Amino acid sequence: MLLLRFGPRWAVLFMLSLLAGACTRKTVSFNSKLDQPMPDGAAAPGDSLTTTKKKNPKLSIAGRKAVLTKAEEKAAKEAEKADQRKPKKKKKLFLGERIKKGYFKTGTGKNQVVTIFYYLKTFRQPSAMAPAVYYYNPRKHKIFTANGELDPSTDKVLHGPIKRMVKNQVIEQGYYALGTKHLRWEKYDAKGGLTAKTHYEMGFPRDANISYYDGGNTMIKEVVPYVNGKLEGDYVKYTADGKREWIGHFENGRRVGEWTNYWDYKGYRHYVLQYGETGYEPEVAEPELIREYSHGGSPIYDKEKKLDKRGDPDPGTNAVD
Fold first, then answer.
1. Which domain holds residue 131?
2. Do 106 and 162 belong together in one domain?
């Protein structure tokens, strides 16, 4: 009513001034009250939605920490431990024994043979009653047949799978157990065709003829290996007190390789005879003597080394006048 006294024009001007004041920008905080205005120059508190002179509002999260539940915290710790935990190497085992891998090459060019094998990580002396014991010599890079007890410091007892290859083509594969041939052994031709298959049980061919000194079949006298009715594999003959007398190998029904005779004293070798290299050629009528040893185990003849002391007194015994 008072404004009407000054006329309608003054009333309109007064209303416009009120509207201009209502549209003035003002800082608003969720943490502030209407009766407590923010001081000039004061920063807005954390966790606040503020309007500024900029066009768009922004969310400030300064000083805020993420809050995890106990389950989430436990899962995070387990994930961190899993990342730090190094994967353990799987132990290589065969028949319960830890083994290591080895390989060597023989020959050159197209005829080079690569042999991949495994041996006992911890040395164990093979059984003295085994028909044949095989070991690897790291110095000579070759697999040998034992002629007595093995040397724990140098000899590696074969144990586990073995494979021989030419040009990445398998020509022979099988298994060893504590130095003896075990389970299934196979031979292949150059085209991968199976040419021979033999089953062994700790060195003894499954089809071998085994004779004994006693009726209880505990004292082995002789092991004659047969495969499909033909002589094939390792041969061994023992004395009545369990010592080796002869060891050798048959292939395709014929004696091949080295055949060794033993003294009856401490298992020393007596002499070694050489037969043909393969059983697919006629068997040698008269084997060649290539090594001979005294009763005390000393070498007295060696064809390869050109050693011949067979006329001398036995170095392993005392000479008698």
1. 92-206
2. yes
257 shares a domain with 177: no
Q: Which of the four pLDDT bands, split at 50, 70 and 90, describes residue 32?
A: very low
CB 208 within 8 A of CB 226: yes
**Cα 203 to Cα 146: distance, rounded to the nearest angstrom:** 13
Cα torsion 203, 208, 213, 218 to 10°: value is 50
Indicate whether 304 and 213 sit together in one domain.
Answer: yes
More confident residue, 284 or 182: 182
274 & 235 share domain:
yes
Q: Please say if the pLDDT value at position 123 is more than 80.
A: yes
Other Cβ atoms less than 10 A from the Cβ of 262: the count is 22
Mean pLDDT of 65-82: 77
- Within a 13 Å sphere around the CA of 253, how many CA atoms are in the beta-carbon half? 6
State the pLDDT at residue 307.
94
Q: Which of 177, 206, 235 is the last residue of a domain?
A: 206
Q: Which one is predicted more confidently, 297 or 70? A: 297
CA-based torsion, 272, 275, 278, 279: positive or negative: negative
Q: Are residues 189 and 218 in the same domain?
A: no
Q: How many domains does the chain have?
A: 2
- In this prediction, residue 320 carries a pLDDT of 42
Half-sphere exposure of 61 (CA within 13 A, CB side): 4
pLDDT at 48: 47
Distances, alpha carbon 187 to alpha carbons 104, 114, 165, in Å: 19, 15, 11
243 with 294, same domain: the answer is yes
Task: Give the 3-state secondary structure of 43-61.
Answer: CCCCCCEECCCCCCCEECC
Q: Report which listed range, 114-123, 140-149, 201-210, 280-289, is most confident.
A: 114-123
Query: Are 290 and 270 contacting, i.e. CB atoms less than 8 angstroms apart?
Result: no
Give the contacts of 92 (CB within 8 A, at least 6 positions apart). Answer: 98, 99, 100, 101, 118, 160
The alpha-helical segments, DSSP class H, found in 109-163 are none
